[in-house]
Amino acid sequence: MRLFITLVAAVLCILCINVFADPVFPSHIAGTFGDSSREPKYKIEFHTEDSPYHPDDGQESVVMPNKDGNNFLCFLPKVGKAKKSVTHQNTSSMIVETEKRVKLKTPDELLEVLKNQCFIRQEGWWSYEFCYQKQLRQLHLEEDKVVQEFVLGVYDEEATAAFNQNLSDISTLKDPRSKDASQRYHAHQYTNGTACDLTNHPRETEVRFVCSEPRAMISSITELSTCKYALTIQCPMLCKHPLFQEERPVWHTINCNILPKDYKDTKVDDPHFTMIIDSDDPSTYSTK
Protein backbone atom coordinates (compact mmCIF):
# COMPACT_ATOMS: atom_id res chain seq x y z
CA MET A 1 0.00 0.00 0.00
CA ARG A 2 2.85 2.37 0.86
CA LEU A 3 4.48 1.69 -2.53
CA PHE A 4 1.16 2.37 -4.29
CA ILE A 5 0.86 5.76 -2.55
CA THR A 6 4.45 6.59 -3.49
CA LEU A 7 3.82 5.76 -7.15
CA VAL A 8 0.62 7.81 -7.21
CA ALA A 9 2.62 10.69 -5.75
CA ALA A 10 5.12 10.20 -8.55
CA VAL A 11 2.35 10.51 -11.14
CA LEU A 12 1.01 13.65 -9.49
CA CYS A 13 4.44 15.26 -9.24
CA ILE A 14 5.39 14.45 -12.83
CA LEU A 15 2.08 15.54 -14.31
CA CYS A 16 1.89 18.74 -12.28
CA ILE A 17 5.46 19.90 -12.85
CA ASN A 18 5.48 19.47 -16.63
CA VAL A 19 3.65 22.31 -18.35
CA PHE A 20 2.47 22.07 -22.00
CA ALA A 21 0.96 25.02 -23.88
CA ASP A 22 -0.20 22.72 -26.67
CA PRO A 23 -3.06 20.39 -25.65
CA VAL A 24 -1.94 17.84 -28.24
CA PHE A 25 0.53 15.54 -26.51
CA PRO A 26 3.52 13.95 -28.24
CA SER A 27 3.77 10.18 -27.94
CA HIS A 28 6.52 10.38 -25.31
CA ILE A 29 6.86 12.80 -22.43
CA ALA A 30 9.09 12.18 -19.43
CA GLY A 31 9.63 13.56 -15.97
CA THR A 32 11.56 12.40 -12.93
CA PHE A 33 10.74 11.55 -9.33
CA GLY A 34 13.26 10.58 -6.65
CA ASP A 35 15.66 12.62 -4.52
CA SER A 36 18.68 10.34 -4.32
CA SER A 37 20.78 8.91 -7.13
CA ARG A 38 20.34 5.53 -5.43
CA GLU A 39 16.54 5.78 -5.29
CA PRO A 40 14.35 4.56 -8.17
CA LYS A 41 13.20 7.29 -10.54
CA TYR A 42 10.03 7.42 -12.56
CA LYS A 43 9.25 8.72 -16.02
CA ILE A 44 5.88 9.01 -17.71
CA GLU A 45 5.01 8.03 -21.28
CA PHE A 46 1.79 8.90 -23.10
CA HIS A 47 0.43 6.48 -25.69
CA THR A 48 -1.92 7.23 -28.57
CA GLU A 49 -5.27 5.55 -29.20
CA ASP A 50 -3.73 3.83 -32.22
CA SER A 51 -0.92 2.35 -30.15
CA PRO A 52 -2.07 2.03 -26.53
CA TYR A 53 -0.07 0.53 -23.70
CA HIS A 54 -1.14 -3.00 -22.76
CA PRO A 55 -0.81 -3.52 -19.01
CA ASP A 56 0.06 -6.75 -17.28
CA ASP A 57 -2.61 -8.65 -15.39
CA GLY A 58 -3.27 -7.02 -12.05
CA GLN A 59 -1.22 -3.91 -12.82
CA GLU A 60 -2.55 -1.02 -10.74
CA SER A 61 -3.77 2.17 -12.42
CA VAL A 62 -4.88 5.69 -11.61
CA VAL A 63 -7.08 8.10 -13.61
CA MET A 64 -5.73 11.63 -14.09
CA PRO A 65 -7.08 14.65 -16.04
CA ASN A 66 -5.13 17.17 -18.09
CA LYS A 67 -5.76 20.93 -18.00
CA ASP A 68 -8.59 20.56 -20.55
CA GLY A 69 -10.40 17.96 -18.46
CA ASN A 70 -9.43 15.02 -20.68
CA ASN A 71 -8.77 11.94 -18.61
CA PHE A 72 -5.85 9.54 -18.90
CA LEU A 73 -5.53 6.07 -17.43
CA CYS A 74 -2.01 5.72 -16.04
CA PHE A 75 -0.58 2.30 -15.19
CA LEU A 76 1.87 2.12 -12.31
CA PRO A 77 5.01 0.00 -12.68
CA LYS A 78 5.64 -3.03 -10.52
CA VAL A 79 8.64 -2.04 -8.43
CA GLY A 80 10.62 -4.60 -6.49
CA LYS A 81 13.25 -4.09 -3.85
CA ALA A 82 16.39 -2.45 -5.20
CA LYS A 83 19.57 -4.47 -5.17
CA LYS A 84 22.38 -3.29 -2.95
CA SER A 85 24.82 -1.10 -4.81
CA VAL A 86 28.39 -2.22 -5.28
CA THR A 87 30.81 -0.47 -2.96
CA HIS A 88 33.34 1.99 -4.32
CA GLN A 89 36.21 -0.21 -3.15
CA ASN A 90 34.85 -3.35 -4.78
CA THR A 91 34.08 -1.48 -7.98
CA SER A 92 37.61 -0.08 -8.10
CA SER A 93 39.02 -3.58 -7.66
CA MET A 94 36.90 -4.89 -10.52
CA ILE A 95 38.01 -2.03 -12.76
CA VAL A 96 41.68 -2.69 -11.99
CA GLU A 97 41.19 -6.33 -12.94
CA THR A 98 39.36 -5.30 -16.10
CA GLU A 99 42.15 -2.87 -17.04
CA LYS A 100 44.57 -5.79 -17.14
CA ARG A 101 42.60 -7.14 -20.09
CA VAL A 102 41.05 -4.02 -21.68
CA LYS A 103 42.27 -0.42 -21.43
CA LEU A 104 39.35 1.68 -20.24
CA LYS A 105 38.86 5.23 -21.43
CA THR A 106 39.55 7.87 -18.81
CA PRO A 107 36.89 10.45 -17.88
CA ASP A 108 38.80 13.08 -19.89
CA GLU A 109 38.87 10.81 -22.94
CA LEU A 110 35.11 10.29 -22.65
CA LEU A 111 34.59 14.05 -22.36
CA GLU A 112 36.52 14.82 -25.56
CA VAL A 113 33.24 14.88 -27.49
CA LEU A 114 32.45 18.16 -25.70
CA LYS A 115 35.34 19.99 -27.36
CA ASN A 116 34.22 23.05 -29.33
CA GLN A 117 30.83 22.93 -27.59
CA CYS A 118 29.25 25.63 -25.43
CA PHE A 119 26.28 25.40 -23.06
CA ILE A 120 24.03 28.15 -21.71
CA ARG A 121 21.84 28.24 -18.60
CA GLN A 122 19.61 31.15 -17.58
CA GLU A 123 18.90 31.87 -13.93
CA GLY A 124 16.85 35.01 -13.49
CA TRP A 125 18.87 38.14 -14.29
CA TRP A 126 21.98 36.17 -15.24
CA SER A 127 22.85 33.70 -17.96
CA TYR A 128 25.85 31.38 -17.73
CA GLU A 129 27.84 30.33 -20.80
CA PHE A 130 30.24 27.41 -20.42
CA CYS A 131 32.58 26.45 -23.27
CA TYR A 132 34.43 23.19 -22.68
CA GLN A 133 38.13 23.69 -21.88
CA LYS A 134 37.80 27.39 -22.75
CA GLN A 135 35.96 29.63 -20.29
CA LEU A 136 32.89 30.21 -18.15
CA ARG A 137 31.07 33.55 -18.42
CA GLN A 138 28.30 35.17 -16.36
CA LEU A 139 26.21 37.37 -18.66
CA HIS A 140 23.26 39.71 -18.56
CA LEU A 141 21.49 39.82 -21.92
CA GLU A 142 19.03 42.35 -23.28
CA GLU A 143 17.50 41.63 -26.68
CA ASP A 144 20.15 38.92 -27.17
CA LYS A 145 22.95 41.44 -26.63
CA VAL A 146 25.52 41.18 -23.83
CA VAL A 147 25.22 44.29 -21.63
CA GLN A 148 27.14 42.99 -18.60
CA GLU A 149 29.78 40.27 -18.37
CA PHE A 150 32.02 38.57 -15.81
CA VAL A 151 34.46 35.79 -16.63
CA LEU A 152 34.18 33.19 -13.86
CA GLY A 153 37.28 31.36 -15.01
CA VAL A 154 39.43 30.27 -17.94
CA TYR A 155 40.40 26.61 -18.35
CA ASP A 156 43.64 25.97 -16.47
CA GLU A 157 45.32 22.79 -17.66
CA GLU A 158 48.12 22.98 -15.08
CA ALA A 159 45.75 23.57 -12.16
CA THR A 160 43.56 20.72 -13.35
CA ALA A 161 46.55 18.37 -13.58
CA ALA A 162 47.74 19.43 -10.12
CA PHE A 163 44.26 18.94 -8.68
CA ASN A 164 44.10 15.41 -10.08
CA GLN A 165 47.74 14.44 -9.52
CA ASN A 166 46.91 12.10 -6.65
CA LEU A 167 44.08 10.47 -8.56
CA SER A 168 44.39 7.61 -11.02
CA ASP A 169 42.65 7.68 -14.39
CA ILE A 170 39.72 5.76 -12.95
CA SER A 171 39.29 7.73 -9.72
CA THR A 172 36.55 10.25 -9.08
CA LEU A 173 35.54 12.45 -6.18
CA LYS A 174 32.51 12.58 -3.94
CA ASP A 175 30.83 15.95 -3.50
CA PRO A 176 30.66 16.74 0.25
CA ARG A 177 28.12 19.52 -0.40
CA SER A 178 25.75 17.40 -2.47
CA LYS A 179 22.36 16.38 -1.08
CA ASP A 180 23.35 12.91 -2.18
CA ALA A 181 26.85 12.43 -0.80
CA SER A 182 27.48 9.52 -3.14
CA GLN A 183 27.29 11.65 -6.29
CA ARG A 184 30.65 11.25 -8.03
CA TYR A 185 32.12 13.78 -10.39
CA HIS A 186 35.24 14.47 -12.43
CA ALA A 187 36.63 18.01 -11.99
CA HIS A 188 38.38 20.63 -14.12
CA GLN A 189 39.77 23.89 -12.75
CA TYR A 190 38.95 27.28 -14.30
CA THR A 191 41.02 30.18 -12.95
CA ASN A 192 42.07 33.77 -13.73
CA GLY A 193 38.58 35.16 -14.20
CA THR A 194 37.41 38.74 -13.80
CA ALA A 195 38.81 40.36 -10.64
CA CYS A 196 36.45 40.17 -7.67
CA ASP A 197 35.56 43.52 -6.09
CA LEU A 198 35.33 41.96 -2.63
CA THR A 199 38.55 39.93 -2.56
CA ASN A 200 40.69 41.66 -5.20
CA HIS A 201 41.46 38.18 -6.54
CA PRO A 202 40.44 36.67 -9.90
CA ARG A 203 37.23 34.68 -9.92
CA GLU A 204 37.63 30.90 -10.25
CA THR A 205 35.39 27.90 -10.78
CA GLU A 206 35.57 24.17 -10.29
CA VAL A 207 33.66 22.50 -13.13
CA ARG A 208 32.21 19.15 -12.09
CA PHE A 209 31.16 16.57 -14.67
CA VAL A 210 28.63 13.96 -13.54
CA CYS A 211 26.94 10.98 -15.18
CA SER A 212 23.38 11.90 -16.12
CA GLU A 213 20.98 11.23 -18.99
CA PRO A 214 19.68 12.15 -21.49
CA ARG A 215 21.88 14.99 -22.81
CA ALA A 216 24.83 17.19 -21.83
CA MET A 217 23.70 20.37 -20.05
CA ILE A 218 24.48 22.75 -17.19
CA SER A 219 22.51 21.48 -14.20
CA SER A 220 23.56 23.97 -11.52
CA ILE A 221 25.98 26.69 -10.46
CA THR A 222 26.82 27.48 -6.85
CA GLU A 223 28.98 30.14 -5.19
CA LEU A 224 30.99 28.10 -2.66
CA SER A 225 32.66 31.17 -1.18
CA THR A 226 33.13 34.77 -2.31
CA CYS A 227 33.80 34.71 -6.08
CA LYS A 228 34.61 30.97 -6.03
CA TYR A 229 32.10 28.80 -7.84
CA ALA A 230 31.14 25.21 -8.61
CA LEU A 231 29.49 24.45 -11.96
CA THR A 232 27.90 21.03 -12.48
CA ILE A 233 27.61 19.60 -16.00
CA GLN A 234 25.43 16.56 -16.68
CA CYS A 235 27.21 14.28 -19.16
CA PRO A 236 25.68 11.06 -20.52
CA MET A 237 29.05 10.07 -22.01
CA LEU A 238 30.50 9.71 -18.49
CA CYS A 239 27.97 6.95 -17.83
CA LYS A 240 30.15 4.70 -20.00
CA HIS A 241 32.72 4.65 -17.20
CA PRO A 242 32.11 1.89 -14.60
CA LEU A 243 32.60 4.13 -11.57
CA PHE A 244 30.01 6.57 -12.85
CA GLN A 245 27.63 3.78 -13.89
CA GLU A 246 27.41 2.82 -10.24
CA GLU A 247 25.59 6.08 -9.59
CA ARG A 248 22.94 5.64 -12.28
CA PRO A 249 19.45 5.32 -10.78
CA VAL A 250 16.92 2.62 -11.58
CA TRP A 251 14.25 4.01 -13.91
CA HIS A 252 10.62 2.85 -13.98
CA THR A 253 8.03 3.90 -16.54
CA ILE A 254 4.48 5.04 -15.78
CA ASN A 255 2.45 4.42 -18.95
CA CYS A 256 -0.65 6.52 -19.69
CA ASN A 257 -3.40 5.83 -22.23
CA ILE A 258 -6.23 8.13 -23.26
CA LEU A 259 -9.13 7.06 -21.06
CA PRO A 260 -11.44 4.79 -23.12
CA LYS A 261 -14.97 6.10 -23.63
CA ASP A 262 -16.38 2.85 -22.29
CA TYR A 263 -14.28 2.98 -19.11
CA LYS A 264 -16.66 2.17 -16.25
CA ASP A 265 -15.04 4.06 -13.37
CA THR A 266 -14.54 7.64 -14.56
CA LYS A 267 -13.86 8.96 -11.08
CA VAL A 268 -10.64 10.93 -10.92
CA ASP A 269 -8.46 10.09 -7.91
CA ASP A 270 -7.84 13.73 -6.99
CA PRO A 271 -9.63 16.50 -8.92
CA HIS A 272 -7.22 19.08 -7.49
CA PHE A 273 -4.37 17.74 -9.62
CA THR A 274 -4.31 18.21 -13.39
CA MET A 275 -1.80 17.60 -16.14
CA ILE A 276 -0.20 20.76 -17.51
CA ILE A 277 2.61 20.13 -19.93
CA ASP A 278 5.29 22.32 -21.47
CA SER A 279 6.70 21.97 -24.98
CA ASP A 280 10.28 22.88 -24.05
CA ASP A 281 12.12 19.56 -23.85
CA PRO A 282 10.04 18.02 -21.01
CA SER A 283 12.34 15.00 -20.80
CA THR A 284 14.88 17.13 -18.95
CA TYR A 285 12.57 18.45 -16.26
CA SER A 286 12.81 17.14 -12.70
CA THR A 287 10.17 17.04 -10.01
CA LYS A 288 12.73 17.78 -7.32
TrEMBL record:
PROSITE patterns: MRH (PS51914). GO terms for biological process: endoplasmic reticulum unfolded protein response; retrograde protein transport, ER to cytosol. Residues 1-21 form the signal peptide. Keywords: Disulfide bond, Endoplasmic reticulum, Glycoprotein, Lectin, Signal. One of its GO terms (molecular function) is carbohydrate binding. Its main location: endoplasmic reticulum. It is found in: Endoplasmic reticulum. Belongs to the OS-9 family. This is Protein OS-9 homolog. It comes from Gossypium mustelinum (Cotton). The lineage of its organism: Eukaryota, Viridiplantae, Streptophyta, Embryophyta, Tracheophyta.
